[in-house]
Design brief:
Number of strands: 13
Distance between the termini: 61 Å
Strand content: 25-35%
Number of helices: 8
Structural class: alpha+beta
Shape: globular
Largest sheet: 13 strands, antiparallel
Helix content: 25-40%
Order of helices and strands: EHEHEEEHEEHHEEHEEEEHH
């Protein structure tokens, strides 16, 4: 596995893993879409031939992992997080649904199934589920198995605003990535975000080094970052991942490693639970601690500084002379007068 895709959801009215029985006892059946379109032929079909089935294939035992405490000043004060693995089996249609005579094939020939892995974990009297897939259709199917009524429409603890991403870019550029005594932002290698003018909203994207002038231009022009790819390292982990505003992540396994000695948890589980159980929340907390001064003081100065870098680069690249800017500068001065 070269990449891990994960999406996090908060469960409603469940505050501990031992209360998940009502979720794990669920199954879900759904009328096959192609069945709805041919009522005459379907009338004679057996009921079992008409439905998708979503069910639990495997439910693991309760396990635990230690992560640093969010409010600790080092990585030595531990918090225990309980977790439970579960695998769902989800059915979906194949392309070919009818035989050469136009009759429905047996369900086994019309339907595929696949296993989707998940991790349920408990933190501060709340239970979250990590659905480990990149496919939106499979996420939707998985949520139906859990029960839509059991999934919260909001997840404030894991919501990240654009200023958090801008602050990370600032820390990486201006403070050599130093977040605190034990945590360092080693790299920001890409971003996706929106920037707008009076008429339109534009999406900008960069998947290379943050030294690209286009990235600085995007930030200095007031662009809102929606997701970034970063590398963070502390005493326990060295992880490279993309994270978006909803804390959906893509972990690059080839560039990530577990540094904690004598840790028996498998790498995928460790990377996910360390990231969600500690690191994302820690980065959010560090930003909140600095948010007032960053928004009011550092960010305007930083935006101006990298804006000048952008202008300098464009001037040098295009051999622009001062006289080429005289009319523009004069017009700007008159507007400000």
């Amino acid at each position: 596995m070269s990449k891990i895709y994960s999406n996090i959801f908060l469960l409603n009215n469940i505050n501990c893993l031992t209360s998940l029985n009502k979720v794990f006892s669920r199954q879900h059946s759904e009328l096959l879409p192609h069945v709805k379109k041919d009522e005459k032929q379907v009338a004679s079909m057996d009921e079992s031939e008409k439905y998708f089935n979503y069910s639990w294939k495997e439910i693991g035992e309760l396990e635990e992992i230690k992560v640093p405490k969010i409010n600790g000043n080092d990585n030595f004060t531990a918090e225990i997080i309980l977790y439970q693995k579960a695998i769902a089996n989800l059915e979906y249609t194949k392309k070919r649904k009818k035989d050469s005579n136009g009759k429905f094939l047996p369900k086994a020939e019309r339907v595929n199934d696949l296993d989707v892995e998940s991790l349920f974990f408990e933190k501060e009297n709340k239970v979250y589920v990590l659905i480990i897939t990149s496919n939106d259709y499979n996420i939707s199917r998985f949520k139906k198995l859990i029960g839509e009524q059991n999934i919260s429409q909001t997840n404030p603890e894991y919501s990240l605003n654009p200023d958090t991403f801008n602050w990370l870019f600032y820390v990486y550029t201006e403070r050599n990535g130093t977040l605190n005594d034990v945590t360092k932002l080693e790299n920001i290698s890409g971003f996706v975000g929106n920037v707008s003018d009076d008429a339109n909203v534009f999406t900008g994207a960069s998947y290379q080094t943050t030294e690209l002038i286009a990235t600085k231009a995007f930030i200095s022009n007031g662009g809102e970052l929606k997701k970034i790819t970063l590398r963070v390292r502390d005493t326990d982990i060295d992880i490279t991942c993309m994270v978006n505003e909803n804390s959906s992540v893509v972990i690059n396994c080839n560039l990530s490693s577990k540094l904690r000695i004598m840790e028996s948890t498998d790498n995928v589980t460790f990377l996910l639970l360390y990231l969600y159980g500690y690191l994302i929340l820690k980065l959010k907390q560090l930003y909140i601690n600095e948010s007032d001064s960053f928004i009011k003081e550092e960010n305007p100065k930083f935006s101006k500084k990298i804006g000048i870098d952008v202008i300098k680069s464009i001037v040098e690249k295009n051999n622009i002379l001062l006289k080429d800017l005289e009319s523009f500068l004069l017009e700007d001065s008159l507007e400000q007068a």
